[in-house]
Structure formats: structure tokens, C-alpha cells
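Technical appendix A lists one of the benchmark inputs used to test multi-chain prediction within the project. The record comprises two sequence entries:
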Amino acid sequence: MSATGIGASVRRKEDQRFITGKGHYTDDINRPGQAYAVFVRSPHAHATIKKIDTAAALKSPGCLAVYTGADVAADKVGGLICGWMIHSKDGSPMKAGAHPALASGKVRYVGDHVAVVIAETLAQAKDAAEKVGVDYDTLSAAVDVATAQSNGQPQVHEEAPNNTVYQWHLGDKAAVDAAFAGAKHVTKIDLVNNRLIPNAIEPRAAIGEYDSGTDSLTLYTTSQNPHVARLVLAAFIGLAPEHKLRVIAPDVGGGFGSKIFIYAEEVICLWAARKINRSVKWTGDRSEAFLADAHGRDHATHAELALDGDGKILALRASTKANLGAYLSTFASSVPTYLYAPLLSGQYNIPAIYCEVDGVYTNTAPVDAYRGAGRPEATFVVERLVEVAARETGTDPAEFRRKNFITAFPHQTPVIMAYDAGDYDACLRKALELADYGGIGARKAESAKKGMKRGIGLSAYIEACGIAPSAAVGSLGAGVGLWESAEVRVNPTGSVEVLTGSHSHGQGHETTFAQLVSGRLGIPIEQVTVVHGDTDKVQFGMGTYGSRSGAVGMSAIYHAIDKVIVKAKKVAGFVLAVPEESVDFKDGIFSSTATNNTLTFPEVALQAYIAHKFTGAQLEPGLKEGAFFDPTNFTFPSGVHICELEIDPDTGATRIDRWTAVDDFGELINPMIVEGQVHGGVAQGVGQALLEGAVYDKSGQLVTASFMDYAMPRASNLPSIKLAMSHTRCPSNPLGIKGCGEAGAIAAPAAVMNAITDALGHENIAMPATPLAVWRAAQKSPTKMAAE
Amino acid sequence: MFFRKKDSDRAPEAAAPPAAAAKAGDGTVSVSLTVNGTPVTASIDPRTLLVQFIRENQRLTGTHVGCDTSQCGACVVHLDGRAVKSCTVLAASVDGGKVTTIEGLAKDGKLHPMQEAFREHHGLQCGYCTPGMIMSAIDIVNRKGTNLDEATVRHELEGNICRCTGYHNIVAAVRAGAANMSSSRQAAE
């Protein structure tokens, strides 16, 4: 391993600009002559728009334009799309309502886009927006996912009767029912996976720009996947042909899923830029982020586990209502279906699984992928079920898990997935040892002496990452392929530019991708630059989500490097005057058994470009290669997280005392960065379990719409994290890596809730386990609960 | 509006007596500040927040805006040597003040020890909260000393939100940066 190659904790190349204030985020960009956009948003969850009066706003100082849904419709601007088709049990396609960029006739959630005001300055745009008069006829709102499908509830879209977008299922219901009929023990739980608001610290922003000389558009935007944004904006929304539209996603301040999607504000800034022939800039404020960024999770689930007399799992069944919000966001339909139910086998050998999911419209913000996307929801179901089953059958929860672990690979689950590699017991053993699981009894006794309740909770998670291969996701309804592309451009002096379709918004690709190049080509890491986030520079790419940039994005770079090395060997053969087949390349040096002469990588790069030692008939000059990589399977990171916490029953305060994680991500490129990803994921998972929860009141007002009301994890809410790794190589990509970005967020909620319920002695508490909720639960004794 | 309890953690509103700035006839006010050692004067809309002055007027975009309720701390700068949330300060109210932003920390191309510590300990991912974190961290050291335990750092970072790192490495970076500030101060003495 070289000091800057694969496996080294190289300090990040991108940090220099971030720690000196020289990052370039979208809001840091200012274009000549730019105007400012402010959106008029619905204050009602559900209302008919009777009239919009723009006259006063248009007269406001500096106001350039006010546009409404009628203008968008008149220009035939296409609606926002959902790119994953789900079919119901009966074979019918999902029932989706239209999603115009500015509301047409009706508003469907608080924050829905009613009009845009464009002015010379931001202050003038805000002043003018105050003067837009909107006359609403308010309607009652469907807010709660548990009741939105009932008769008599307000209808969000006419196209979806009873607010039901789809009634989907997966698995063999008959086999599952038979297994339950023969079970010795059945564990039943009802779970709510609380609604979350992603809250990347950089709010979304967009600048639309029009060049009348070339009739082309440019969009600067906070996107995790600029090429997909361009494709959708061109092909579906129809703002410009793809080759006349450039999308630039510069430094992006966190995404967590929320910046995958194509939003109304981006559409409107681009469209309006052409209309007024000026650059149009919009920067969301935090209140807008709360109201109108796609939210995450929001499931209500009933789940059951069937056991035989030896504590072996026979079958699992789950029934879930998933809140999709008021409109289907870009990938909303896939999250509670194919990103959820196929993970319900967890790490366990479960012969039969059946899951049914209703996707439900409500008068709330759209719900889509948020860190983990479906997999945290699945892990929460599985890991709460096995924990409760272990407790009900008087089995140690670790032992219960071990007894049911999958131990042979590959393993075909009954719900699509074929797990390729893993050693679940290795992670469990290591985690139990690091957490001093054996000493928990003594520590509980110590806590009890202080009047505190101590609990310990395990979570043995699995996830499916990479979100590929393309043919597989296509067969499940995805509208796009999920490969990745790369281009490796070697300069004549031997420095390298790597162009990638992945996008970095905190993951450190500029470092890890450079490590791969540095290690394989034997050149200093300083000689490598990673280029991403600009559709004019990178030909195409699918972007970053689903922990895919290592397993899929880097694998594309790996294959492009393979091609560079093949070509470079040919060049070296001509220069050394030896047969190409005799040329070897190792540690940056080209050598041959046929000569004592050697060449360095930069020497060969120069020879490739000056092209003096070969003719055009023998070899093309230059050294630049590209590759598209489509893996053969999903990747399956797994691991065990253990949460140990202490509850003060008098105040309900919960303090996490120890966090132990043992993860199997396969091969690691940069352990420092991998650990950072786990830390961040755990923080979001702990946030979900203890702090965070989006709350709408009955009228559909979001009452948790600021950092004052929505509890974000702060430094004092979190413990230091004890981390270790276990390694089984992933066989479906050349680097053997599985992905690490979502693991913490997937594992953590179940670990926390298993620990809290262990401490309290009963199961009757939901996320977020706030001090009030914990205090209430702590007032009920375990025996009393059992009698209820 | 969002005062902290302790005087030592004084809220930005209390930072300076209001409006020594001169009013012009066109509704703007003239403000003079020293930003990163350079005196600047500008005519601004009286509503202009200090963070807007820094970002839009001075085009120093390292100071960020992450919320609208003075909670996230992405906008923290030093005003007359103390950390303030620049989203909650009217620029005109601090006329004559000395402002240091993230861009003003490195001297002669040499990073401040706290900047260096954030890189060394991987205390940042997307980088958006980072300038505010670093400015707050230096302020913590100025108030609490260079020998900081974990609990103190976690408590003192209450006003800075990071969504990426889980704070684990930020805490490590602040402690290490504090220790390095101690050695660089000693070296300077």
C-alpha cells in the first residue's frame, strides 16, 4: 500500500478550500445582471385557488415579472415527473396526479408553489412577493397516512381515488400464511417510522441563465446528480434540448437524498431566465427547506414474525402504509417498495416473506429518498421484530440473531435479493466484545443504584447498495439505468484528470478517486484532479446516492485506468523497441524482460502525445480512455451496531453512554473517510430515534418548520463512537467495495429503540423517544404493561 | 431574541451600541467596518445584515447562511474579537467594528492551527458548516482555554449544527486545534 493509494487514510484534497472559505457553493455564484426570484407559497394544506392578483406586485419597485401556474401552462412547461413505475397487486399502474411547477387551480400542501416574483434585488423581490394577492377557497386536508385512505377523506388528486397511489406487494403470501399457521410462536409489532426532514445545512439554490446568442440554457444548482437533472429538464419538462442545456452542480453542502430530486424552483429559474433574458437566482431559506424539500420515511407498519419451537424464524410478514405526500417526487414511488421490502430478510435465513405496501397521497410535502431510503425502514422492522421475539421467547437477543443468521453465500432470499458475501457472525462477535456485552448486567446494577435505568440494544443491519445493475432495476420499474461513467485523461506531462459521473457533496471523492489513480498509475496524488458536477465537462453520469459512488463510480474509473494501462504499454513497447506483450507496468514503471531500459509513467505519457516512436497506422496518439461500469449485482454492506444508554426516569432524559459499531464494507479506499461516513450516519439515525420528527397538525400546517421546533442532533446529543471493521470482499465490482454512506442511518434507530425498550422493560414507545415520551413510558412499570 | 444564559456567551445583538452609521438621503446608510484588517466603507440598505454585507457587498463567500433562526452557526464570524452569528446582526449597527471572517484566519499563507486541525482530524465533510465551526472553535478556545475536555467542547458547540460528521471528528479537531493554539502561542512568546 502506498502512502496515497488504496487503503491509506489520506487527508482530503478538497479541505484546503473549505477550511479557508474558498468553496464555491451555488449561492456563492453571482452572474452578470442576475435578478432574484422569490416564491409565493401556499399557506394552506389544501385549497382551491380562486384568483391571483399580481398587479400590485408588478408595480412594486424593482419588480421585473410575476408568473403563475397559468403562465407555466401557457408555455407548455412539462410537469415534474416520478421516474419509477410501480404496479399494484392487480397489475394496474400507479395512479399519479399531475405535478406542475407552479400550482394549477389547486394547492396541495403548505409550501406548494403558487407564483414566482422576480426583481432586481432580493429585498425587492421579497417586498413584491408580499403584494401578490391570492384568493383561496380552503378545503379540509388529508394529513395522517393511517387514515388518508378512508372513505370521506379529502381527495388530494382526482386520479388517485381514496388517495391510494398503489397497493403493491412482494413475496409468496400463501407460503407465508402456511408458515404462520404452523408456528409455535408469533411476534407482532406495530411501528411508526417517523417522518424526517433532511436538512442539509446548505439550503437548495438555483441560478438559471439564458444565452440568446446560442439559444442555450445553463442551470447552477445544488444537485447530487446534475446529468439526471439535465435529462429530466430536457426530455420531460422540455425547457431546452439536452445539448442546449448545461447543468452545473458546484460544491454542494450536503444532500442526504434531498438534492437528488428535480424541484419546481430549478424549473422556474431556468424557464424564467429565458422569458426575461436575465439570469435568475433563487436561494432557499431554511423555512422553505422545511416546507418544500422532499421529506423522508413516514411509514406505519404492522409486522409479524413466525417462529418454530427452537426459536428459528419460519416467516415474516409486514403491511405498510407509506406517506408519499401531495405529489410524487422524482423517485418517491420506489422508496417504500423496491428499496424497502427486498431488505426484509435482514441478515437472517427466513424461508418465506410477504410484504404489502400502500402508497398514499396526503396534503403534506412530497416524501422521497432520505439517507438509506427504504432500507432504514426495513431494518427497523426486522431488528425490532427479532429483538421483541427474542425477549418474548426468553432468548438472549444476540444469541437469537446468531441462531438465525445466514451463514452460506451466495444466499437467495425470498424477496429478490441474492446476498453475495458476508460474515454476519464475525461482526456480531467483534461488536459484542468491543461493547463488553457480557458486563451489561453489572453496569445495569450500577445504574440502578443511582436510580437510573440502563439498556442495551443491538441492530444487525443489511443494506443493498450501488443501486444497480441497470437491467435489474429496469425490470423493477426504474426509468433509468444505474451504471456509472468515467474518463481518465492523461496530460502529456503525466498528470491526470479524472472525469466522473458521480457527484461529491461531502463524500470526499476528490481524494478517494485520486487515491485510486495514484495507486494504480504510480503517480503522486497531487498529480490527479477529479472533475465532476458539470454536464459540459463530464459526458454523462447517474450521480451520487445509495452509497454507489465507490462501488459503481470508482469501478468505472478502475476500468478506464485498465484501458489507459493497455494503451500506455503499447506506447512503451514502441519507445523501448520491445514487443508490447513483454511490457510490464508496476509502481509507475514500465519495464520489459527484453531490455534493461525502463520508462516512468510521465515519460510514456509524453511519448503518447509527441508520437514520434510510432506511426498513425500503428497506434493512435494520445492517452485518454473512458468506461461505463454496470455491476453484476447490488452490494450488501452489513454490520452490527450496539447502543448502550442510561435513562433518568425522573426526567425522561436519555444519555447514550456507548456506541459500538462493527461494519463490513468490503475493501476500504480511505478508512478515515469511511469512519466519518459512519459517524454521520449514526448521528442521523440517533436523531431519528431520539430527537427528530416532522409534525403536521390536523389542518396540515407543519408545526416543526424551523431549527427552533425540529430538533436537530447537536454535539451534546451524541456520544463518541467506537468503530471497527470486518471485511468480506464484494465480488460484484473490481475493487471489492460495498459502500458505507448510509449504514449508520440504517443501523442506528433500531439499536437505540432496542436499548430504550430494554431499559424500560416494555415495548410501548415510539420514535422520536423525546424526554417527554420516555418519561411517560418510564412511569409505566413493566409488569403493569404486561397486564394491559 | 435567542439570548444565551451566560454573559460570557453574550448574544450578538448586545455586541455594539446601535447605529453610529450615517444616513444618506436616498434611504441608504453609510457603514465603515474593518474586514480582515482592511478598512471598508459602503452605502447599504439599512436592512442589510452583517452576513449579507460580508457575502454580497464584500464578496467574501466563506461565511455561510444555513438557517433563518440564528440556530445553525454557519454564519459565525468574529466581531471585535468575539464570535457572533452574523445573520442576526444589522451591519449598520456595528459601524466601526472589526470583523474577522474565515478568509482572514490564515496569515501569510499559513493556516491557523484550528484550520489545520479540522483537516488533520477530518472534521468536515461537505464543508458548509465548517467556516462557522472553525470561527466558533477559536472563540471557545479564547473563552475556555486551550486544554478542553470532550464534554466542554460538545457543550460549547451547541450553537453550531453539522449534518454530516456526527460531530465525532469535529470534537477531536477542536481539542487538537486548541492544543496547537497553545503551542503556537508559546512559540510566539
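Chain B touches chain A through 55 residues (CB under 8 Å). The mean pLDDT of chain B is 89. Comparable benchmark entries are summarised in Table A2.
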